[in-house]
Amino acid sequence: MKRWSLVALALVVAGGLAWTHPGWALGAPDWPLEQYLDKVGVQPGKEYKGLTIYPLVARQGFPVNRYLTLDQALDSKVLKVTELEGGAEVNTLLLENVGDRYVFVLAGEVMKGAKQDRTFQNDLLVPPKSGKMRVSAFCTEHGRWAQRTTHFEAGGVAVPNSVRKAAKLGKEQGRVWDSIARNQEKLAVSAPTGAAKEVYESRAVQTDMKPYMDKLVDIPKLSWHTVGVAATFGGKLVALDVFGNEDLFGRLYPKLLRSYVVDVMGTPGKGPRPPTT
């Protein structure tokens, strides 16, 4: 995988850490993300049933702080996410970080509760003591509009990778719902409210997913400074996720891996396998 293909794909699906600094713009001669990715190498991959995960290893770390993940921040109640005051809206939520650390949110991570499950439309780096902020979101549960909880809770999963891609590239609620429905239909999952997280709660899906996880979950431990992965299926690139350091990547990788797996499970015709050495 050449340097420029890695840079271009990272703009679509990378973790977004480099977007937070004032003045970092595409085409700048000293653009930090380009410099960072120039130090990232692709290691031999591991494969199971056509899904191959290649570790991406950095020769040096990116100068970022230790962030809380979305689930950590929601569970510890330092991040408060609610429906809008005075009237809920499907595609807008109210967010506040009351803690002293930055919170990194990966687009596609599911939050459950409130009037319907949601995911944020974009990767976010929420500053400490942020105050209340209106943030764009997508619904990941088409068939419910009834209050279950006051605040959103950690969903513990990310939407399937194809849904995350539809959200990032299409930025339309209808495409997100359609992509969730196609994934559930392919995996024969009955979801009364159309919630994306119900795929992961299916016993049949859990059983079929387990060998993928057993084979591929140790990717962060294979090399020092593993900061991301490239995932291919049948010889085609399906995902590229790159982060600023190995700590953040390691905490998010199991969630990302599950999102890759439910996306490729049940897909006929694996095609030729890419080389793994």
Order of helices and strands: HHEEEEHEEEEEEEEHHHHEEH
Structural category is alpha+beta
Shape label = globular
Q: Uncertain runs with pLDDT below 50, 5 residues or more?
A: 1-29, 271-277
Average of pLDDT? 84
Number of helices: 8
- Strand tally: 14
How much strand? 15-25%
Distance between the termini: 13 Å
Sheet with the most strands, sense and barrel status: 5 strands, antiparallel
Helix content: 25-40%
Oligomer: single chain
Structure description:
- The protein is an alpha+beta fold.
- It has eight helices and 14 strands.
- The protein has helices at 3-13, 32-37, 70-75, 161-170, 173-186, 198-201, 203-216, 246-264, and strands at 40-42, 46-48, 51-58, 68-69, 79-82, 92-97, 103-105, 109-112, 118-120, 124-126, 133-139, 153-158, 226-233, 236-242.
- The strands form four sheets. Strands 1, 2, 3, 13 and 14 form a five-stranded antiparallel sheet that branches. The chain has a four-stranded antiparallel sheet with strand order 5-6-11-9. Strands 4-7-10 form a three-stranded mixed sheet.
- Strand 13 (226-233) and strand 14 form a beta hairpin.
- Helix 4 (161-170) packs antiparallel against helix 5 and helix 7 crosses helix 8 (246-264).
- 42% of the residues are buried.
Summarize the SSE layout with pairings:
Layout lengths: L2 H11 L18 H6 L2 E3 L3 E3 L2 E8 L9 E2 H6 L3 E4 L9 E6 L5 E3 L3 E4 L5 E3 L3 E3 L6 E7 L13 E6 L2 H10 L2 H14 L11 H4 L1 H14 L9 E8 L2 E7 L3 H19 L13
Parallel strand pairs: 4-7
Antiparallel strand pairs: 1-3, 2-3, 3-13, 5-6, 6-11, 7-10, 8-12, 9-11, 13-14
Helix pairs in contact: 4-5, 7-8
